[in-house]
Specification:
This protein is an alpha+beta fold. The protein folds into two domains: 6-136, Acid Proteases (Cathepsin D, subunit A, domain 1), CATH 2.40.70.10; 137-168. It contains three helices and eleven strands. The protein has helices at residues 120-123, 139-153, 155-162, and strands at residues 6-8, 11-15, 23-27, 34-43, 49-53, 65-68, 72-77, 83-95, 98-107, 116-118, 127-129. The strands form two sheets. The protein has a six-stranded mixed β-barrel with strand order 2-3-10-4-9-8. Strands 1-11 form a two-stranded parallel sheet. A hairpin with a 5-residue loop joins strand 4 and strand 5 (49-53). Helix 2 crosses helix 3 (155-162). The longest helix is centred in the last third of the chain and has 15 residues, at 139-153. The chain is globular and about 55 Å long. The mean pLDDT is 89.
Length: 168
């Protein structure tokens, strides 16, 4: 008999061992692979991949440098159509109480709502996604509500504040 699959929502919290706990992650069944925010990505003369998880603007960033000899690369097409090379490596994570080993692309996710993206390969055979569920409150939604209230009060003042160039 097949093992019971755990039901997760459209976003979850993920643990990267003791290094980063309760990290918000977007579950994306449209994405093939998983991705994690990494900074200072480089390969030294000995061929060792070095990077830090997250970036200085992240509450999960601690500056610790990871060193990996077991890594690969992939040519990835961005949403804008540009092809870029991304380094990939495995992490053992805890997702919905399950300890799993998953392959992650290292990328700058500073501008994204979630520092981690969980794709189909990580989910396959282990999880079912119920899009009506979520573990993480969307900060952007709160910000959008606040901005729309400000817009409703005075549309012209709002425009001047956010769009019109300031006089110098």
């Amino acid at each position: 008999m097949a093992a019971q699959k755990t039901i997760i929502g459209r976003n979850v919290k993920v643990d990267f061992g003791r290094r980063a706990v309760n990290v918000p992650a977007k579950v994306d069944t449209g994405a093939d692979g998983s991705s994690v925010w990494a900074s200072n990505i480089r390969v030294d003369k000995d061929g060792v991949l070095k990077f830090s998880l997250f970036g200085k603007g992240s509450p999960y960033y601690n500056g610790k440098v990871f060193r990996r000899t077991d890594y690969s690369v992939a040519m990835v097409k961005s949403a804008s159509g540009h092809e870029i090379i991304k380094y990939r490596t495995h992490f053992t994570i805890i997702l919905a109480g399950k300890k799993i080993k998953a392959l992650f692309s290292l990328s700058d996710r500073a501008v994204h709502n979630f520092p981690v993206l969980i794709g189909r390969r990580t989910l396959s055979g282990k999880f079912l996604v119920d899009v009506s569920m979520n573990e993480v409150r969307n900060q952007k939604k709160s910000q959008t509500i606040r901005l729309n209230k400000e817009l409703a009060k005075n549309p012209h003042k709002f425009y001047k504040k956010y769009h019109k160039p300031k006089d110098t």
